[in-house]
């Protein structure tokens, strides 16, 4: 019997957490939060609707909750039929049907129908001890959660992050926020935007992800004195992130290609993503492919080893042409936890973490020349890198511990569970 099954048998209240895929290597803040919530005594049941990544992190293994896979209901007609026959008898099903008609007033798409079908599966298969539905991201997860909550009569809450805030229509976000007890988000700009859309602005809460520092080595690594002058000891640059437009990696390749030819550096990239092949081809066209190492997706242990071996972490985040953007990238906090100097952009919530010239260096987004100038200055200045690394490490440890935000989320969850009482 699984941990979640034991809790179901004991009658303890359960929080259903809706996630896309499980595990996902690019969203370590999610399992980190779930580990913390379980430490706080909350009992979780995870409903995953998307595919899993092949690479996993050790933090996923620390989550004790059962994983319930919804999959694609259009490929599971018998399962969907059984679920529909069950939930159509519930009082909330008519309300959910009406909501679905409103969602599809401008056209029924396969994506929308699939989300409603997943909501039916979830409503039919959710443990009876569930007292709260909690969606990670207010995009598809919250669509599923909103309809499932309507069918079951359970309260809904969510955590919003980045692309789900800025890419969805305002009308859609208003409707979802109106259905929620509360919604957390991890950036000041995101919190302000959602509060302006919410029926009750105080239901939107700013909660930074932070880091569970017990996931990372506690000692300060000794970083090199490499200054870009020795061909046998190039300065080691590192970026961790999916190969997508908002990460700014194409601009970084341009900036690297513009550096003086006698400056010795080597850039390491960790991550997968749809633009990876295009980035490799771009690097080749600019003549820097032999100074770049593409590592693909790696587990957390390998990523941490790379932080500790690197001289400078670079993440030139920007807004994508599809309006996608980062929130507060966890990789910046992770790199700083290991004393690595960070170079990023004064965009989105990044200045909430990095103070320019004190705990990191910030340049304007989508601007090659300032990025190249900052790269050259930091490559040539190991002493400056060391100062920034020490200051960044201290700031993360003092102000961005995950426990603070996790305790707030746990409190919000318990408040809803206590208010609803026994069902």
Arithmetic mean of pLDDT: 94
> What is the count of DSSP helices, taking H or I runs of 4+ residues?
18
The dominant shape is elongated
In terms of DSSP E residues, the strand content is 5-15%
> Would you report the number of β strands?
13
Q: In what order do the strands lie side by side in the largest sheet?
A: 3-2-1-4-5-6-7
What class do helices, strands and sheet pairing give?
alpha/beta
For the report, how would you describe the main beta sheet?
A: 7 strands, parallel
Radius of gyration: 23 Å
How is this structure best described in words?
This protein has 423 residues and is an alpha/beta fold. It has helices at residues 3-10, 29-39, 58-61, 77-87, 93-103, 110-125, 140-152, 163-166, 170-179, 188-197, 249-257, 276-285, 300-309, 330-337, 350-353, 368-379, 382-399, 402-420; strands at 14-19, 44-48, 66-69, 130-136, 156-160, 182-185, 204-206, 235-240, 265-270, 292-296, 312-315, 341-345, 361-363. β1, α2 (29-39) and β2 form a beta-alpha-beta unit. α6 (110-125) packs across α7 (140-152) and α11 packs across α16 (368-379). The longest helix has 19 residues, at 402-420.
């Amino acid at each position: 019997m699984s941990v979640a099954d034991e809790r179901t048998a004991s009658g303890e209240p359960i929080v259903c957490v809706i996630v896309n895929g499980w595990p996902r290597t690019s969203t370590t803040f999610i399992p980190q939060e779930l580990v913390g919530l379980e430490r706080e005594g909350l009992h979780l049941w995870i409903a995953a609707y998307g595919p899993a990544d092949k690479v996993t992190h050790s933090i996923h293994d620390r989550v004790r909750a059962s994983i319930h896979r919804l999959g694609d209901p259009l490929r599971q007609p018998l399962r969907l039929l059984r679920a529909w026959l069950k939930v159509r008898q519930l009082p909330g099903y008519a309300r959910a049907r009406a909501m679905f008609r409103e969602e599809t007033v401008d056209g029924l798409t396969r994506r929308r129908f699939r989300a409603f079908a997943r909501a039916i599966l979830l409503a039919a298969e959710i443990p009876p001890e569930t007292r709260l539905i909690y969606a990670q991201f207010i995009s598809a997860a919250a669509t599923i959660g909103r309809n499932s909550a309507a069918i079951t009569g359970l309260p809904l809450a969510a955590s919003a992050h980045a692309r789900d805030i800025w890419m969805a229509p305002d009308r859609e976000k208003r409707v979802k926020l109106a259905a929620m007890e509360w919604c957390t988000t991890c950036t000041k700009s995101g919190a302000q935007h959602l509060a302006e859309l919410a029926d009750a602005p105080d239901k939107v809460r700013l909660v930074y992800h932070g880091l569970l520092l017990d996931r990372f080595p506690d000692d300060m690594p000794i970083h090199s004195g490499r200054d870009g002058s020795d061909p046998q000891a190039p300065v080691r640059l590192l970026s961790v992130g999916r190969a997508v437009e908002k990460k700014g990696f194409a601009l970084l390749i341009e900036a690297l290609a513009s550096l003086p030819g006698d400056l010795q550096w080597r850039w390491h990239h960790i991550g997968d993503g749809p633009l990876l092949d295009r980035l490799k081809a771009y690097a080749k066209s600019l003549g820097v492919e032999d100074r770049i190492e593409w590592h693909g997706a790696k587990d957390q242990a390998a990523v941490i080893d790379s932080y500790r071996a690197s001289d400078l972490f670079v993440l030139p985040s920007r807004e994508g042409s599809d309006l996608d953007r980062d929130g507060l990238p966890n990789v910046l906090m992770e790199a700083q936890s290991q004393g690595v100097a960070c170079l990023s952009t004064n965009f989105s919530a990044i200045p909430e973490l990095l103070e320019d010239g004190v705990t990191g260096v910030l340049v304007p987004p989508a601007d090659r020349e300032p990025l190249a100038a900052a790269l050259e200055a930091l490559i040539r200045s190991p002493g400056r890198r060391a100062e920034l690394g020490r200051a960044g490490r201290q700031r993360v440890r003092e102000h961005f511990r995950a426990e603070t935000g996790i305790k707030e989320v746990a409190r919000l969850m318990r408040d809803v569970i206590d208010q609803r009482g026994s069902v």
